[in-house]
Amino acid sequence: MCNNFVEKYNNLSDDELIHLSRNEDNDAFNILFLRYRHIIAQICAKHTQDGMDCDDLMQEATISFYYAVLFYDFKSSSFSTFIYVCVERGVISAIKKAAAKKRVPYSMLVPLEEDINSCELDPERLVLNRESHIAVAKEIKNRLSDLEFKVLMAFLKSGSYDSVANEIGISRKSVDNALVRLRKKLDSIT
Fold first, then answer.
1. Domain 3-102 falls in which CATH fold?
2. Which residues of 110-165 form beta strands (DSSP E)?
3. How far apart are CA 60 and CA 64, in angstroms?
4. What is the mean predicted confidence (pLDDT) over 122-135?
5. Whose CA is closest to 69, among 44, 55, 90?
6. Which of 27, 34, 104, 144 is deepest in the core (most CB within 10 A)?
């Protein structure tokens, strides 16, 4: 970047750069990002010990920064506070998603060579697999309360706390509590 370019944008306030960024001025966005890269880097460095690569966290943080620029309302708080909160939440959310993918029970994993749709599986193996799945389903049903089982089925169908709450007729907090309890119970099965 040439000095005139940098000076042109560096003299602008954050609010002016936000407006320009929203009007697809990539240079304004880049300058704004450069102003706050130290905050973004601090957040990423703080969370690298949580099991994610620094580059992955930086990518998530940059996406969160972009959305923060788009949705900042100029009224509620300072832009730096808003950026910090948005980026922090984005990074934490990415870490939680990555951790959730790792928590798939080992017993639920099927090796590729045992694909259920494979023509190589013999009928006896198919029956044994089906019986095993039925046994696991019965064990899950026995361990969970009626509410927990309803929440589990609704959550597997929709994946949304709000839709589960509406379908069953309970609060979002009750859905969350039921999911926490049933996760603990299901962890003991595997």
1. Rna Polymerase Sigma Factor; Chain: A (1.10.1740)
2. none
3. 6
4. 64
5. 90
6. 144
The amino acid that residue 19 corresponds to is H
pTM above 0.70, yes or no: no
Reported as a pLDDT band with limits 50, 70 and 90, residue 170 is very high
- What's domain 107-189's architecture? Orthogonal Bundle (1.10)
What sign results for the dihedral spanned by CA atoms 120, 123, 128, 132?
positive
Give φ, ψ of 106 to 5 degrees: -60, -35
Please give the Cα distance from 187 to 8 (Å, whole number).
57
The distance between the two most distant Cα atoms of the chain, rounded to a whole number of Å, is 76
Cα–Cα distances (Å) from 145 to 142, 151, 165, in that order, read 8, 10, 16
**Hey, what are 65's tokens?**
């920064």
- Say if residue 114's pLDDT is above 50: no
- Reference 19, options 30, 28, 9; nearest CA is 28
At 96, the pLDDT band (50, 70, 90 cuts) reads confident
Within 13 Å of residue 65, how many CA atoms lie on the same side as its CB? 23
Distance, CA of 184 to chain centre: 20
Enumerate the domain spans of the chain.
3-102, 107-189
